[in-house]
Every structure is written in C-alpha cells, then in structure tokens.
Amino acid sequence: MSYEYRLHRLANGLTILAECSPAAHTAAGGFFVRTGARDEPREIMGVSHFLEHMMFKGCAGLSAEQLNRAFDEIGARNNAYTSNEITCFYADALPEQFPRALELLGRMMRPTLAPEEFEVERGVILEEIAMYHDNPFWVLFEETLERHFGNHPVSHRVLGTPQTIGAMRAEQMRAYFDARYSPDNTVVALAGNVDFEAACRQLEALTASWSPTRADRDPRPPAIAGGTFELRSEKVTQAYVLAMCPAPAMADDRRYAASILAHVLGGGDNSRLHWSLIEPGIADDAQASFDPHDGLGDFMVFATLHPARVDEAWEILEREMRTLSDSLEPADLERLREKMITSATINGERPHDRMQRLGRLWTYLGRYATLEEELAMLSGVTLDNLRALRGEFPVRPVTVGRLLPAG
What we know:
The chain is of the alpha+beta class. The chain has 15 helices and 13 strands. The radius of gyration is 22 Å and the shape is globular.
C-alpha cells in the first residue's frame, strides 16, 4: 500500500501533515501539542496531564456526555496521552466518518474548563496518583528521575504530586492553556484514507480563532545529578532495582543504534539480561530501555527479584552493561535489526501508527522522514556504530535506586 506525503501550514501557524492512501480502510488524526511536564512551572506540576483530562469535559456547544456520545455514534476510537514533552489527542474512524471525528477533535481542543468540572477532576487525578503510588516500579522510577535530573523540569512527574494538584487553581490551568495550546505549538497529523484538501479546509475553519503565542522550550540538556539511594516500604515484599544513564537525544541519529543496544541488553526473551538473570532464576523481571527526548536521552535498566539476591543481581547487571558492546556478534545484530524492522513495518501498515509516527517526529524535529528512510537508518547500524556509541554514551549506571521491603 503506497502513501502520499502532504504538508500544509495555516496562516495562524498550525502545521498539518499527512500520509494519505485511498486504499486504506481507516483514517486517523491527532493533535500533537508540544507541551508536557517539562514545560510546567514546578508549583503547578501535573497541569498538562490534568488539562488532558479537562479537554474531555466539554467545549462550546457540547457537554462532556454529548462529546463522548458523538464519538461513539460514529464508531470512532479516540483517546489522549500526556508525556514529559507531548500531549496528544487522537481519533481513528472509518473514512466516511473521519470528517466528523476531526471536527470533534478540533472542537474539544478549545474546552470550557468549567470550575465545577475542575474540582471533580481534581479528585480523579488525586486518586490516580494514589493508585500509582501503589505501583513499586512507578515509585522507584519517579524518585530516580528526580535524583537523576535534579531540579531541571525534565524531572517533573507527569501526574504531579498530591501537593501541586491539591493546590492548583483553575485560573492557573487556564493561563497555562492560553500560553501553550496555540496553533504554532501544535501539529495535526493525519494518515490513511484521508481527503487532505478537505481536511485542511475543515481545520482552517475550526482553528480560525486560534492565535499564535510563540511558546518555547529550552532544549539544552541539564547537568546530571546522579548518585545512589535506597527506599524502604512496608507495601513491597520483592526488591526493585533501577539504574539510569545518559543516551542520545531525539534529534541525534545515533538514536537508532541506541535503540538496538537497549534491545540487546534487555529487550526481550533473547536479551543479555534474560539469559543472565531471568533464565537462571535470579530475577523475576529484567529489562532495559532507551528513551530519547528533546535535547537529551536516557538508558534505563530495571529488575525485580528476591531481596536476598539484590547484590548478586547487581553484580550481573553491572557486568552485562560493561561488556555489552564487546560481546556482540554480527548474528546478534542482524537478528535484532531484522526483528525491529519487521515490527516497524507491521506498524506502518496501520494508519493509527503512521499518524503517531508522523506527529511525534514533526513535533520533536520539525521535519518529515518516510518510514523507508527510518528503516534504512536502522538497517545501516553496524557493530562499529554500536561500539562507538558505547564509547560516547557508556551504558554505565549514573543514578541507581533500590526499593526494598521495610525492616
């Protein structure tokens, strides 16, 4: 199935881009706002995620119930998510229903932010925070993030804290919305069976009253604080270990090699950590990941195990990280590279995944790359690239945290 790339910018600064294919059976669209936890003043940490919830609580001419029912009536699948750097609102629908889905998305992007809904949703967010506080990984991850990045806003918790959410005022949220939910800080990505010209006309009408704000972000990487720490909790019976270290940024082409390196270390059943920790029964779970951001990136290693085996497991983790690139064989690289290419190709057959790739890539980099170009970059990674990457970004723990049972 072939896709045609299209790009259009409205006078107000809104960027609209698409990969269109008349042969696709569905259409997908998303509003990607370049804002997240790292863009928040510390005193209103969590406002981006809180605001994401509020966007579903009604807009001009549509109550929350009417908005949700309208999506259901056309059979659309819609949702949203918030990260440290992006807030996205999206919908997938059949082609004949997609203009209505796009209209609903556009309308909900200008919410009423009613005070009564604000107070109700505050309680929902506080319950969500409490729920995540019962998740050992999440507790350890948030603490590690804060110690790794220090006072830099990259360390902000996406959900916020009970204190920041409890003290937040509706007018603070409104001010944040007005500053960052602007057309020049938003990308609309479309994919699948989409009439691009019609969609652009529709979006131009929907966003006619939107004004640019020149919202910005400082992409410079922070100084890494690092260090080791230990938490104790009566809620856990297992031990949890998490380590972080610097990695390439989203704009760095070495991210392709970094992604492969993370998969080699702890990306699945044939990873180094699987065979050294899980298969021998030392750990219940052991994985590694690579997460590129705006101006920085990080490698993360995580393991769950019996408390009595923490020191033993940590020695193995350190050894696997230290010897990672030297232990690679050409067959390892070829197998993993083909697996990742297959996964990306399968995702490329779905308009929803194409829309997400388009939106995220443009929001981060302000440019377009075909799926084939990205696959070529992945295919071009060599063992020398992996070894050079390890020299520039050693997979060596910089910030290490442990969560252990109390007592």
